[in-house]
Amino acid sequence: MSELVFDRVSVRFGAHTAVDEASLVVRSGTTLGLVGESGSGKSTVARVAVGLEKAAGGSVRLDGAVLERRNRRSVQMVFQDPLAALDPRMPVGTSVAEGLLATGRRWSGAERRARVQELLELVHIDPSRAGERPARFSGGQRQRITIARALAAQPAVLIADEITSALDVSVQGVVLNLLRELQRELSLTMLFISHNLAVVRYVSDDVAVMRNGRIVEHGPTDTVLDDPADAYTRELLRSIPVMGRPLDLKDA
Ligand SMILES: Nc1ncnc2c1ncn2[C@@H]1O[C@H](COP(=O)(O)OP(=O)(O)OP(=O)(O)O)[C@@H](O)[C@H]1O
């Protein structure tokens, strides 16, 4: 069980309310896709969950317990740009090992190496390449390495913020299929942020739509994307670009 609940979360930057009493439920073991126009507050609401932004009101709870320093490692976030997220001078295995620190337990050198190997295998990166630097990997491989680092912390919830937006369409499918596979194998609960509706439809059980800091729609994926409750949401969904041609992700 690992249900993530945002309960009337608000975030203000000076006089600007970026997130306005947003409530979301990410059901245990499922993926909630969060969509909305650029600047609608999607990243900001997610950043509250991992402590990168402070809420002016409301709370984020994991299985009923308010997220704070003590239990925050249970929620890990992966960002759009894997190059920015990985230290260019550091072997990728060392970056993944950094994620192990968040577990709070002591790892011997041998245990750490074995676990890093396991994590790289989990994301389909050849573990014999653990000593190589990020520049030697492709964009999709680098993104899989950042996912391995996030998983090293043994999170109950993974937040993915536009993680395929910077990738070639051909590689997007590989990363998305990996996410689905990991979710099944690890029973992960996932908050998946994207402006690409084809991608959101592919990975999400539920979808929420954000507008001007507010959640305007929240429900099962098919209902929200095919039959949204209000006219504004229909308009909004039409205005969000689906990048390129629809993806044929089954073959990716
Ligand atoms: N650190 C900050 N200081 C001031 N304003 C900010 C800050 N971070 C975000 N904002 C503002 O908050 C609002 C929401 O931004 P946010 O990045 O959450 O939107 P988003 O829906 O994730 O957009 P995008 O899809 O472009 O990433 C925007 O108006 C943005 O300019």
UniProtKB/TrEMBL annotation:
Kindly give the Pfam families that the UniProt entry links to this protein: ABC_tran
Write out the entry's keywords from A to Z: ATP-binding, Nucleotide-binding, Transport
What span is annotated as the signal peptide, if there is one?
none
Matching CDD domains:
ABC_NikE_OppD_transporters
Gene Ontology MF term list: ATP binding; ATP hydrolysis activity
What are the residue boundaries of the ABC transporter domain, all occurrences included?
4-237
Per the record's keyword annotation, is ATP-binding included, yes or no? yes
Picking any one GO biological process from the record gives: transmembrane transport
Q: Which family does it belong to?
A: Belongs to the ABC transporter superfamily.
PANTHER family in the record: D,D-DIPEPTIDE TRANSPORT ATP-BINDING PROTEIN DDPF-RELATED, TRANSPORT ATP-BINDING PROTEIN
Instruction: Please give the name of this protein.
Output: ATP-binding cassette domain-containing protein
State the organism named in the record: Kineosporia babensis
**Lineage of the native species?**
Bacteria, Bacillati, Actinomycetota, Actinomycetes, Kineosporiales
